[in-house]
Write a structure and sequence with these properties.
It is globular and about 45 Å long. Helices cover about 60% and strands about 5% of the residues. By secondary structure, it is mainly alpha-helical. A four-stranded mixed sheet has the order 1-2-4-3, with helices on both faces.
Length: about 350
């Protein structure tokens, strides 16, 4: 497989000195998280979503959006933020994205990045993120956003941003707000899963797991790496998943619902787990699904794989609610007793389990 420095692409002459593998013709199916695919299937089946999607696709001010960033942000190029421009072209080369999307740097102290746009994707990164991350960490983020572009996520992300704004404007209309929020909630659920896919794309571009881990840690705890430890950070994810009783499980669901991103510790744990799989190694060895094969892909098979992934996650999960689901599915007896115990009141005593403290993520 050719590497980034093979010199075959004269449009991307500014590339880093460290050699990285290139994935010619790679399909987004290679790195998409099974939960991403199944959540998108569920979203498309949501009543009224197709109607809203078609309507907004024609009504959203695409040109206005592009003019806004053109007039009020800094466009990345050879003359402006040249190091980011090199990373962007490099990421597109590695994932074989034919057209390099425009990229803008927006003045905002909050570390963030997004890929939006209906007709064509636009990548936006904030100054807070640029100032927070080093070169290799930033490379993973740029690869993350290019992964969104390759997967076609920008369309749904744009609609989510618009509907979130619209929901605030019509909050005084009970039924109208309820209908919009049902779609917004489903979009957020999908987008959280799509972030796991894009994290994988970022790893394929950066090809440095440590850099990806550092970037996520910085998003959670700021530029204080000397005060942080990767193993301890990942233990937080384990504690978050396993800690507490059913009340904590419910609180986890309520905490994550308003968010577009999964919790940062969870993202780090998911990415490290995938990096240790045979699937990741096969991609690095040059064996991966190609875009030319996408038309022959069975939707049923993809959904079956996603369902199998969910079932495996439920069986192996340490979360009290997931354990209860497994017990019920297995025909466990004394359901009432289990419920009383899981909610921390089996003997009238207080729950003494350890509670994880999730870090917020950008």
């Amino acid at each position: 497989m050719p590497d980034v420095n093979d010199g075959n692409d004269d449009q991307r002459e500014h590339v880093p000195s460290r050699q990285r593998r290139r994935f010619e013709g790679i399909s987004s199916r290679a790195y998409e998280h099974p939960a991403d695919r199944s959540a998108l299937v569920a979203l498309r089946k949501l009543s009224g979503f197709d109607t809203v999607f078609k309507a907004l696709s024609g009504l959203l001010p695409e040109r206005s959006l592009r003019l806004l960033f053109l007039s009020d942000s800094v466009r990345v190029s050879d003359e402006q933020f040249a190091h980011l421009n090199d990373m962007l072209r490099d990421a597109c080369y590695i994932l074989d994205l034919e057209k390099v999307p425009p990229m803008y740097v927006n003045q905002d102290p909050q570390p963030n990045a997004m890929c939006i746009g209906l007709d064509e994707p636009i990548i936006v990164v904030t100054t807070g993120l640029v100032e927070l991350l080093d070169e290799e960490e930033m490379r993973a983020v740029v690869g993350h956003e290019v992964g969104h572009a390759l997967s076609g996520h920008s369309v749904y992300r744009t609609i989510l941003l618009f509907l979130t704004s619209l929901a605030l404007r019509v909050a005084w209309i009970p039924l109208g707000n309820f209908a919009i929020m049902a779609i917004v909630t489903a979009l957020r659920e999908w987008f959280r899963k799509s972030e796991l896919s894009a994290d994988r794309a970022g790893l394929l571009v950066g090809q440095d797991l440590n850099a990806s881990m550092r970037g996520l840690m910085k998003i959670a705890g700021g530029n204080h790496l000397h005060e942080m430890n990767v193993d301890a950070f990942l233990k937080q994810a384990e504690e978050y998943e396993a800690g507490g009783d059913l009340r904590d499980s419910v609180l986890k669901i309520l905490n994550v619902m308003p968010r577009t991103h999964p919790f940062t510790t969870v993202r780090a744990a998911e990415l490290k787990k995938w990096a240790a799989t045979r699937d990741y190694q096969r991609i690095m060895d040059g064996h991966y699904p190609r875009r030319t094969e996408d038309k022959d892909t069975s939707v049923t098979d993809s959904f079956r794989q996603s369902a199998s992934h969910y079932a495996d996650n439920v069986r192996s999960s340490k979360d009290p609610l997931m354990k209860l689901v497994t017990d019920i599915a297995g025909g466990a007896g004394d359901l009432g007793g289990k419920l009383r115990g899981k909610f921390g009141g089996g003997n009238g005593g207080a729950n003494t389990g350890n509670h994880g403290t999730p870090e917020d993520s950008a």
